[in-house]
């Protein structure tokens, strides 16, 4: 299935008028902002000149996403995913450019990924399950809260670190006009009624206030260094 190129998500860094249609991602990780693996290969990494060539490369098992070989050219890829090409010993992380579009940056720490906790549920046996931003679910203790992040090993998904959502935490804004900006949490404001709660962030360009859904913790309190390599 395809979608109209002109109406593709704004996170896609593709020519909008180069044709009418563009590949639509399969159901799977992430949300409607996911980009299909074929576009990663052709349009972002430029390892293929056309869709047919990209499909051949992917079908041959030459690419891994988060440490797992993916052969579906429509496989959905999203923010902070690690795309690896073992044959070339190359590893990339999906991040934002200055316009909030997906780009791939070459990295060294391809064995880990940071995940935002979006929900917690109790499963069979009374165990706590963390529901993560890309659809991943893991079992953990009850020490974790929604809006916190966890650093996991990939592909094993073993917890390596706990990043709390708190004042002073290092975060990335992942939605809206300021997507990609990095800063520290200055204030969290609970909004009464149906409105979204607000977070004020101190960034290099000044203070930015955005909704809590757009906040993604990527580093410890009072630290200037993200726990993952962003390739910058």
TrEMBL record:
Protein name: Small ribosomal subunit protein eS4
GO BP annotation list: translation
UniProt xrefs under InterPro entries: KOW, Rib_uL2_dom2, Ribosomal_eS4, Ribosomal_eS4_central_region, Ribosomal_eS4_central_sf, Ribosomal_eS4_KOW, Ribosomal_eS4_N, Ribosomal_eS4_N_CS
GO cellular component terms listed in the entry, alphabetical order: cytosolic small ribosomal subunit
Keywords: Ribonucleoprotein, Ribosomal protein, RNA-binding, rRNA-binding
Location of the KOW domain: 164-191
Gene name linked to the record: rps4e
Keyword Plastid set for record: no
SUPFAM superfamilies according to UniProt: Alpha-L RNA-binding motif
Species, as recorded: Archaeoglobus fulgidus
Matching Gene3D superfamilies: 2.30.30.30, 2.40.50.740, RNA-binding S4 domain
NCBIfam families given in the database record: PRK04313.1 (NF003312)
Family: Belongs to the eukaryotic ribosomal protein eS4 family.
UniProt entry tagged with the keyword rRNA-binding: yes
GO molecular function: rRNA binding; structural constituent of ribosome
A Pfam entry, by short name: S4
């Amino acid at each position: 299935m395809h979608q109209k190129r002109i109406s593709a998500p704004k996170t896609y860094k593709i020519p909008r008028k180069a044709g009418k249609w563009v590949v639509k991602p399969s159901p799977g990780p992430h949300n409607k902002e996911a980009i299909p693996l074929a576009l990663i290969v052709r349009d972002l990494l430029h390892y293929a000149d056309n869709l047919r060539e990209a499909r051949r490369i992917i079908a041959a098992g030459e690419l891994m996403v988060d440490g797992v070989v993916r052969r579906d050219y429509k496989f959905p890829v999203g923010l902070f995913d690690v795309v690896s090409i073992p044959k070339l010993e190359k590893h990339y992380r999906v991040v934002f450019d200055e316009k909030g579009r997906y780009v791939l940056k070459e990295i060294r720490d391809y064995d880990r990924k940071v995940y935002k906790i979006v929900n917690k549920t109790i499963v069979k046996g009374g165990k706590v399950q963390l529901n993560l931003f890309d659809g991943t679910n893991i079992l953990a203790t009850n020490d974790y809260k929604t809006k916190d992040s966890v650093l996991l090993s990939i592909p094993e998904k073993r917890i390596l670190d706990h990043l709390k959502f708190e004042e002073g935490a290092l975060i990335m804004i992942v939605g809206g006009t300021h997507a990609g900006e990095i800063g520290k949490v200055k204030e969290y404001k609970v909004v009464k009624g149906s409105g979204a709660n607000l977070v004020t962030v101190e960034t290099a360009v000044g203070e930015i206030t955005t909704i809590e859904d757009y906040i993604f913790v990527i580093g410890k309190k009072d630290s200037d260094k993200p726990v993952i390599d962003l390739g910058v």
